[in-house]
């Protein structure tokens, strides 16, 4: 159980802190600088993976991987644009609702089934996001 | 170095936040398709290629020369956390089921709320806490259903 729980908890800490460090940086720096720093960190990660034996092969699936990369860049850009303009305590919880979009897209693209439980989950997410949006507009 | 323009109003942050939700939702689907034929390490390397490709444009657009200081350190920490968290997520998924990993990892806004209130001195209301709990609860339901 610890095999997956420890990295999961470390992920919770890392992403939880990410919103705070980004907000702090964005008080004086433009969002582009944060993305450039992420590019730097991803490059170090890639070099570490290549140095430890990961090999790259040219195959059609690379197209999906590059799309994932492009979406990751766009996602982090939108996240930082939102953090530049709003409070971390509003932006981060709303951003956490991305599995809603993932579930809908998976149903459309991958023909995954939408069960009653998933509809209930999506409803909770939408209610939470709407409440946060309204709370933000009242400030 | 000039400070970014502060933009007020909910739409100013809500629109990019919702764009993030859609983008990362699509990212999840794309990752699932990529992982059919590639390892997570290969996907991470190609992700870094995309970041590198975007960097020249970002350098031109940023129009600043960040000076060494707390803000740049925080930006570097954010970059490192973004890359590190991707690896952690893949490592967790390598050992556990999606239905186990996603509910646990979806709790990260709790950490942000606590740190935003204590370190950034943001006002965190009961409504925000309840709304965040609803979103996390919804994500948990999505992943276990």
Question: Could you characterize what this model shows?
Answer:
The complex is a heterodimer of chains A (139) and B (145). Chain A has 139 residues and is an all-alpha fold. Chain A folds into 2 domains: 11-87, no CATH class; 97-139. Chain A is 80% helix and 0% strand. In chain A, α2 runs antiparallel to α3 (62-85). The longest helix of chain A is centred in the first third of the chain and has 24 residues, at 2-25. Chain B is mainly α. Helix content of chain B is 77%, strand content 0%. Chain B has helices at residues 10-34, 40-62, 70-95, 98-105, 108-118, 126-144. The radius of gyration of chain B is 18 Å and the shape is globular. The chains are: A mainly alpha (139), B mainly alpha (145). The interface between A and B is large, with 116 and 123 residues.
Give a short summary of the structure:
The complex is a heterodimer of chains A (139) and B (145). Chain A is mostly helical.
Q: What is the fold's blueprint, element by element?
A:
The complex is a heterodimer of chains A (139) and B (145).
Chain A: H1 2-25, H2 31-51, H3 62-85, H4 88-95, H5 98-109, H6 116-137
Helix pairs in contact in A: 2-3
Chain B: H1 10-34, H2 40-62, H3 70-95, H4 98-105, H5 108-118, H6 126-144
Helix pairs in contact in B: 4-6
The helix/strand series of chain B, from N terminus to C terminus, equals HHHHHH
Output the helix-strand order of chain A. Answer: HHHHHH
The percent range for helix content of chain A is over 70%
**Mean pLDDT across all amino acids of chain B:** 86
Total count of helical runs of at least 4 residues of chain A: 6
Kindly state the number of beta strands of chain A.
Answer: 0
Radius of gyration of chain B (CA) equals 18 Å
Tags for this model:
heterodimer; A: 139 residues; mainly alpha; 6 helices; 80% helix; globular; B: 145 residues; 0% strand
């Amino acid at each position: 159980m610890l095999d997956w729980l420890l990295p999961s908890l470390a992920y919770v800490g890392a992403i939880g802190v990410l919103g705070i460090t980004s907000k702090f940086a964005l008080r004086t720096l433009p969002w582009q600088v944060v993305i450039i720093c992420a590019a730097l960190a991803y490059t170090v990660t890639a070099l570490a993976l290549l140095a430890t034996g990961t090999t790259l092969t040219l195959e059609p699936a690379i197209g999906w991987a590059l799309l994932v990369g492009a979406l990751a860049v766009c996602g982090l850009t939108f996240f930082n644009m939102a953090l530049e303009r709003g409070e971390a305590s509003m932006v981060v919880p709303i951003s956490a609702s991305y599995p809603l979009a993932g579930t809908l897209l998976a149903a459309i693209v991958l023909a995954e089934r939408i069960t009653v439980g998933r509809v209930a989950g999506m409803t909770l997410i939408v209610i939470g996001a709407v409440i946060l949006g309204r709370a933000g507009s009242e400030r | 170095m000039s400070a970014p323009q502060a933009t007020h109003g909910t739409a100013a942050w809500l629109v990019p936040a919702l764009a993030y939700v859609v983008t990362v939702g699509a990212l999840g689907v794309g990752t699932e398709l990529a992982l059919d034929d590639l390892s997570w390490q290969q996907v991470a390397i190609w992700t870094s290629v995309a970041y590198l490709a975007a960097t020249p444009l970002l350098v031109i657009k940023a129009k600043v020369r960040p000076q060494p200081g707390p803000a740049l350190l925080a930006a570097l920490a954010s970059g490192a956390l973004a890359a590190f968290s991707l690896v952690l997520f893949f490592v967790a998924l390598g050992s556990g089921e999606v239905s186990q990993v996603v509910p646990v990892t979806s709790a990260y806004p709790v950490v942000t709320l606590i740190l935003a209130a204590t370190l950034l001195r943001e006002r965190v209301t009961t409504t925000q806490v309840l709304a965040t709990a609803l979103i996390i609860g919804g994500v948990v339901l999505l992943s276990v259903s």
